[in-house]
């Protein structure tokens, strides 16, 4: 069966590593991630956004993840990414997820607490863990588009009250990461506010912290895209050494979506550019899936440190 994130995070916190939380949208992505995790014997979180549920349908994603569970026998959590409201969270809890995020970060502190608390009460009755968020990342998600100017770091003074009054199991914080493939301006030096993370860690001892917007935007895949008809100049992500540092600290969950998209797209573009006559999806999705798998293995071993922890 699916596992909740509780035990995963306890072990990750103590062990100084992080669990990879990978966004899934179709069969090839589920297979690539779970095959990589299997070969590295790593626990993983597969997460589904509202957009993923709209694209693939809830039931297809749940069944794909169930198939991966049966195929790999790994500890896998199925998590709702960026739940916007109580109803979406409830529908995922009722529909078999083992973890949900309620993203109330764009509400007032008070409303965020109220909403998060309501989700926690329902989720915990069903043995489902809940991730909350304080602070706003820049970038684009389904329903929220936060510009860089409106993004705001998490205020460490708020975290104890938030966690205590909501009962959340983990907390996503904003320390300078952002969603998407363009995280920093060209020429700008990537920077994360480790001082905020440290302060949060002090105030919430042994409490699992989550990093969203944590793709590294690996140049290898961006280059392949650009060499094969793509146009993604100036794509920049979070340097891997910063993620390694965060994983050693209180960060127990690192969210990765853009890197998967880039690897998959690189594989498809490369194949179709080399073989303009091909039209069988299996021909171009096989190398694309292989790139995603290679990427996930590298993340597990070189960045997350979750290999051998299943
Ligand atoms: O946080 C954003 C994730 O990358 C999910 O993206 O909402 O386009 O599925 P999406
Ligand atoms: P990236 O866009 O950096 O992959 O972030 C994904 C994410 O935070 C999903 O919630
Ligand atoms: Zn996110």
UniProtKB/TrEMBL annotation:
Enzyme's top EC category: lyase
Catalysis: reaction(s): beta-D-fructose 1,6-bisphosphate = D-glyceraldehyde 3-phosphate + dihydroxyacetone phosphate
Positions that bind Zn(2+) 2: 103, 133
Cofactor: Zn(2+)
GO process terms (BP): fructose 1,6-bisphosphate metabolic process; glycolytic process
Annotated catalytic residues: 81 (proton donor)
Pathway listed: Carbohydrate degradation; glycolysis; D-glyceraldehyde 3-phosphate and glycerone phosphate from D-glucose: step 4/4
Binding residue positions for Zn(2+) 1: 82, 179, 212
Keyword list, A-Z: Glycolysis, Lyase, Metal-binding, Zinc
SUPFAM superfamilies: Aldolase
Span of the signal peptide: none
PANTHER family linked: D-TAGATOSE-1,6-BISPHOSPHATE ALDOLASE, D-TAGATOSE-1,6-BISPHOSPHATE ALDOLASE SUBUNIT GATY-RELATED
Family, per entry: Belongs to the class II fructose-bisphosphate aldolase family.
Role played: Catalyzes the aldol condensation of dihydroxyacetone phosphate (DHAP or glycerone-phosphate) with glyceraldehyde 3-phosphate (G3P) to form fructose 1,6-bisphosphate (FBP) in gluconeogenesis and the reverse reaction in glycolysis.
Protein name as catalogued: Fructose-bisphosphate aldolase
Source organism per UniProt: Propionispira arboris
């Amino acid at each position: 069966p699916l596992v909740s994130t509780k035990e995963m995070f306890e072990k990750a916190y103590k062990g100084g590593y992080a669990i990879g939380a990978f966004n899934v949208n179709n069969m090839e992505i589920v297979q690539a991630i779970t095959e990589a995790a299997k070969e590295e014997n790593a626990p993983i979180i597969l997460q589904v956004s509202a957009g993923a549920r709209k694209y693939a349908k809830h039931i297809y994603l749940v069944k794909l993840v169930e198939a991966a569970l049966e195929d790999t026998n790994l500890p896998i959590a199925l998590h709702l990414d960026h739940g916007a409201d109580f109803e979406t969270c409830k529908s995922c809890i009722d529909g078999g997820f083992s973890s949900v995020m309620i993203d109330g970060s764009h509400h007032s502190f008070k409303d965020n607490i109220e909403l998060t608390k309501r989700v926690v009460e329902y989720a915990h009755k069903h043995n489902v863990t809940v991730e909350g968020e304080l602070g706003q990342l820049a970038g684009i998600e389904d329903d929220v588009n936060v510009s860089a100017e409106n993004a705001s770091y998490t205020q460490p003074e708020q975290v104890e009250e938030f966690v205590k009054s909501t009962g959340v199991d983990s907390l996503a914080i904003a320390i300078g990461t952002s969603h998407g493939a363009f995280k920093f301006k060209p020429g700008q030096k990537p920077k994360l506010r480790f001082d905020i993370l440290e302060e949060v860690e002090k105030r919430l001892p042994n409490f699992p912290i989550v990093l969203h917007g944590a793709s590294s935007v690996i140049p290898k895949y961006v280059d392949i895209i650009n060499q094969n008809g793509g146009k993604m100049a100036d794509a920049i992500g979070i340097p891997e050494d910063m993620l390694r540092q965060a994983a050693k600290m209180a960060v127990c969950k690192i969210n990765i979506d853009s890197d998967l998209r880039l690897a998959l797209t690189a594989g498809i573009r490369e194949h179709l550019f080399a073989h303009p006559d091909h039209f069988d999806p299996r021909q171009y999705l096989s190398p694309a899936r292989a790139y995603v798998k290679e990427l996930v293995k590298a993340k597990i071993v070189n960045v997350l440190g979750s290999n051998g922890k299943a």
